[in-house]
């Protein structure tokens, strides 16, 4: 009997293998990144070769933040990689996606279960037999120990499309992890450089306040000697107090950035701290390209993830189309059954059955048709999202490259203006000491110099933040 069962299963498996070649639904082809125009395979602009991007988020990025040479930043990035809770949640979602792939693949194989049962039963006294009452009832035990077999033969590729979609979603989940990791890394770096710019600005104001305090002391002494006036003293006091009053506002911004960094690094804000450093002051330079090849965009995990979701939506269309076709399931049961526990395991107590079941939809009230239309619409939506992601990526790169060039020009111009302001202040001090001008000219020159110094420090911080933005826009590096 069991030999016969094996022969029947072998025949069914052979038939399934022959029919497995047909899978309904469209085979996946990556859509063009831009629908309105055809993208050439490759083209050259200013000696740089560009080509159509093919998502490759798995390309290595490395520790891109080390290019800035900041030990504290390196430590924070390592901390965020291991402690950030958003990233931990995304990793858990990836684990779930991998499990769903295994769940989809499990449908390729026969499903076998054991369902033992016991029942105490009584038949009806008036149960019909050949149209008349039996006029008898019986009470008895029923012991059953069956093994149930169910196996769907994937004739039209429904299970293959389910597995294909699950694998595409798993790949998208992997890209989501990389995308969030890149986002967290860039946010840490940008917050860090903004904080360091505030450190430099606070240090500048503190140094300037000390200088103004010495100027006030000098002016008060000159007033005692009859050289300066009460107006000079009042102007020096106003200048000092105004400068000191600006420091708490900057310290508040620094505290808020510090708390943001703590959250990104998975730390409690009340115990998290960074020693102030003026590393963002002008003078430290790092190479930033003015042009980059478009294949770097292939490393953007958001593009790769969007493309994988298109593939998953395409597989869903195949699943919806498979619902119009028959589903062949082979079912079987083999086991033992007896009214007496003592004879349950005797050979005559064996029972078995084996046979196919065909589920052919004849009328569903438009349900399958509606599901197919919904799947196609979902595919079109994913294609549009993928194309928008590509366009946004190019926009990001262009914005960041423009920021690099224009911020550098602005920084050079402001630095030149600062040099002129310092010369102006020196001249104003000399003329004031000679009694040729009032102290107001000195105050004005000092205010102009301080404003330009703060602008230069702020621009240096913005330039670093923009450099991080360029690295993020390129998917993790410009190398």
Structural overview:
The structure is a single chain. The protein has about 475 residues and is an alpha+beta fold. The chain has one domain: Up-down Bundle (Outer membrane efflux proteins (OEP)), CATH 1.20.1600.10. Helices cover about 60% and strands about 10% of the residues. The chain contains eight helices and nine strands. It has helices at about 1-20, 70-85, 85-105, 160-225, 230-265, 300-320, 365-435, 440-475; strands spanning about 40-45, 50, 110-115, 115-120, 130, 130-135, 140-155, 325-340, 350-360. The strands form three sheets. Strands 3, 4, 7, 8 and 9 form a five-stranded antiparallel β-sheet that branches. Strands 1-2 form a two-stranded antiparallel ribbon. A hairpin with a 2-residue loop joins strand 5 (about 130) and strand 6. Helix 4 (about 160-225) packs antiparallel against helix 5. The radius of gyration is 38 Å and the shape is elongated. It starts with a helix and ends in a 6-residue tail after the last helix. Residues about 1-20 and about 40-45 have low confidence and may be disordered.
Class by SSE composition:
alpha+beta
Largest sheet, described in full?
A: 5 strands, antiparallel
> Outline, from the CA principal axes?
elongated
Number of strands: 9
The stretches of 5 or more residues where confidence is low (pLDDT under 50) are 1-20, 42-46
N-to-C SSE string, H for helix and E for strand = HEEHHEEEEEHHHEEHH
Beta-strand level of the residues, as a percent range?
Answer: 5-15%
Mean pLDDT: 85
The share of residues in helices is: 55-70%
| Secondary-structure arrangement, i.e. CATH architecture | Up-down Bundle
The CATH superfamily title: Outer membrane efflux proteins (OEP)
The top-level CATH class is Mainly Alpha
Number of contiguous helices: 8
Termini separation (Å)?
68 Å
Radius of gyration: 38 Å
The fold-level CATH name is: Outer membrane efflux proteins (OEP)
What's the number of domains? 1
């Amino acid at each position: 009997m069991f030999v016969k069962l094996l022969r029947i299963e072998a025949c069914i498996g052979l038939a399934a293998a022959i029919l497995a070649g047909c899978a309904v639904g469209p085979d996946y082809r990556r859509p063009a990144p831009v629908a309105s125009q055809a993208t050439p395979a490759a083209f050259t602009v200013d000696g740089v070769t560009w080509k159509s991007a093919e998502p490759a988020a798995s390309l290595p990025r490395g520790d891109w933040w080390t290019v800035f040479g900041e030990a504290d930043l390196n430590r924070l990035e390592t901390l965020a990689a291991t402690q950030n809770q958003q990233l931990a949640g995304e990793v858990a979602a990836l684990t779930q996606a991998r499990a769903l792939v295994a769940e989809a693949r499990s449908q390729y194989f026969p499903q076998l279960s054991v369902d033992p049962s016991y029942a105490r039963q009584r038949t009806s006294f008036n149960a019909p037999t050949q149209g008349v009452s039996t006029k008898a009832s019986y009470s008895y035990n029923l012991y059953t120990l069956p093994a149930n077999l169910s196996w769907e033969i994937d004739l039209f590729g429904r299970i293959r499309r389910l597995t294909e979609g699950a694998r595409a979603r798993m790949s998208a989940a992997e890209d989501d992890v990389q995308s969030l990791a890149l986002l967290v890394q860039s946010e840490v770096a940008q917050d860090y450089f903004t904080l360091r710019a505030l450190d430099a600005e606070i240090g500048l104001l503190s140094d300037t306040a000390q200088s103004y305090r010495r100027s006030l002391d000098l002016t008060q002494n000159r007033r005692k000697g009859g050289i300066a006036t009460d107006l000079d003293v009042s102007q020096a006091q106003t200048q000092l107090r105004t400068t000191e009053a600006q420091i708490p506002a900057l310290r508040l911004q620094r505290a808020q950035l510090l708390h943001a960094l703590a959250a990104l690094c998975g730390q409690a804000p009340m115990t998290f701290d960074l020693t102030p450093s003026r590393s963002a002051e002008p003078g430290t330079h790092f190479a930033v390209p003015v042009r980059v090849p478009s294949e770097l965009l292939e490393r953007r995990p958001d593009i790769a993830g969007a493309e994988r979701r298109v593939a998953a939506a395409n597989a869903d269309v195949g699943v919806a189309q498979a619902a119009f076709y028959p589903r062949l399931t082979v079912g079987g049961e083999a086991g033992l059954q007896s009214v007496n526990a003592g004879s349950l395991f005797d050979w005559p107590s064996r029972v078995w059955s084996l046979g196919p079941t065909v589920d052919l939809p004849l009328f569903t009230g438009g349900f399958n048709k509606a599901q197919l239309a919904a799947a196609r619409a979902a595919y079109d939506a994913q294609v549009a999202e993928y194309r928008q992601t590509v366009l946004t990526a190019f926009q990001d790169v262009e914005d960041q490259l423009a920021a690099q060039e224009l911020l550098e020009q602005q920084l050079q111009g402001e630095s030149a203006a600062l040099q002129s302001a310092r010369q102006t202040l020196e001249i104003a001090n000399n003329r004031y000491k000679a009694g040729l001008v009032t102290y107001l000219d000195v105050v004005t020159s000092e205010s102009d110099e301080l404003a330009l110094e703060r602008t230069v420090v702020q621009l240096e911080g913005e330039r670093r933040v923009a450099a991080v933005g360029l690295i993020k826009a390129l998917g993790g590096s410009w190398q």
